[in-house]
UniProtKB/TrEMBL annotation:
<keyword id="KW-0546">Nucleotide metabolism</keyword>
<dbReference type="InterPro" id="IPR001564">
    <property type="entry name" value="Nucleoside_diP_kinase"/>
</dbReference>
<dbReference type="GO" id="GO:0006241">
    <property type="term" value="P:CTP biosynthetic process"/>
</dbReference>
<dbReference type="GO" id="GO:0005758">
    <property type="term" value="C:mitochondrial intermembrane space"/>
</dbReference>
<feature type="binding site">
    <location>
        <position position="52"/>
    </location>
    <ligand>
        <name>ATP</name>
    </ligand>
</feature>
<dbReference type="GO" id="GO:0046872">
    <property type="term" value="F:metal ion binding"/>
</dbReference>
<feature type="binding site">
    <location>
        <position position="128"/>
    </location>
    <ligand>
        <name>ATP</name>
    </ligand>
</feature>
<feature type="active site" description="Pros-phosphohistidine intermediate">
    <location>
        <position position="158"/>
    </location>
</feature>
<protein>
    <recommendedName>
        <fullName>Nucleoside diphosphate kinase</fullName>
        <ecNumber>2.7.4.6</ecNumber>
    </recommendedName>
</protein>
<dbReference type="GO" id="GO:0006228">
    <property type="term" value="P:UTP biosynthetic process"/>
</dbReference>
<keyword id="KW-0067">ATP-binding</keyword>
<dbReference type="InterPro" id="IPR034907">
    <property type="entry name" value="NDK-like_dom"/>
</dbReference>
<feature type="binding site">
    <location>
        <position position="145"/>
    </location>
    <ligand>
        <name>ATP</name>
    </ligand>
</feature>
<keyword id="KW-0479">Metal-binding</keyword>
<keyword id="KW-0547">Nucleotide-binding</keyword>
<dbReference type="GO" id="GO:0004550">
    <property type="term" value="F:nucleoside diphosphate kinase activity"/>
</dbReference>
<dbReference type="GO" id="GO:0006183">
    <property type="term" value="P:GTP biosynthetic process"/>
</dbReference>
Length: 193
């Protein structure tokens, strides 16, 4: 027996329930805004994700990208590069006086890394949750670090920790013209026009 499409179900649940009752699963065409509630551009955030040299060497780049795509985030910039000390000094400015900084610098310059910018609603906080704890020993299973990291000093990825930090870090790694503004139409292909 189908439960009534009440307020507890939310707009997407109500829309899908109406579609099922009409015998049209997945087709949501009520008047007004779309069922999935795509966020307006002003609510979209961008975040920086670095796939670190250990993950590139272990060929985990595709696994990392897949997790973001499955979550529905949009890739707007990506490049493979060999980071130099000047770039890393800017990126890790707050860590430069720490005793472990020389080892971090050696690690981050030990091979190529992949820099990416992902866009979406609440992408900064969601990315931090997807990435997991910095220390692989306590990173939850199901997170990127929990699944792939072997040691706190080889923790697979970096992710910006706030919207402000993301804006600053993206500016270190990418020129403005390297960010590609494109319209994602996947929801139209999934849910119909």
């Amino acid at each position: 027996r189908l439960r009534p499409a009440g307020p507890a179900m939310g707009s997407l649940g109500r829309c899908l329930a109406r579609s099922l009752l009409r015998g049209q699963p997945g087709l949501c065409r009520p008047p007004g805004p779309r069922c999935y509630g795509s966020a307006p551009p002003e609510l979209q955030e961008k975040t920086l994700v670095l796939v670190k040299p250990d993950a590139v060497q272990r060929r985990l780049v595709g696994n990392v990208i897949q997790r973001f795509e499955r979550r529905g985030f949009k890739l707007v910039a990506m490049k493979l590069l060999q980071a130099d000390q000047g770039l890393l000094d800017k990126h890790y400015q707050q860590l430069r006086q720490k005793p472990f900084y020389p080892a971090l610098l050696a690690y981050m310059t030990s091979g190529p890394l992949v820099a990416m910018v992902w866009e979406g609603y609440n992408v900064v906080r969601s990315t931090r949750a997807m990435v997991g704890d910095t220390d692989s020993a306590v990173a939850a299973a199901g997170t990127i670090r929990g699944d792939f990291s072997m040691h706190v000093s080889r923790n697979v990825v970096h992710a910006s920790d706030s919207v402000e930090t993301a804006q600053r870090e993206i500016g270190f790694w990418f020129q403005r013209n390297e960010l590609v503004a494109w319209e994602s139409r996947d929801r139209d292909y999934t849910y119909g026009p």
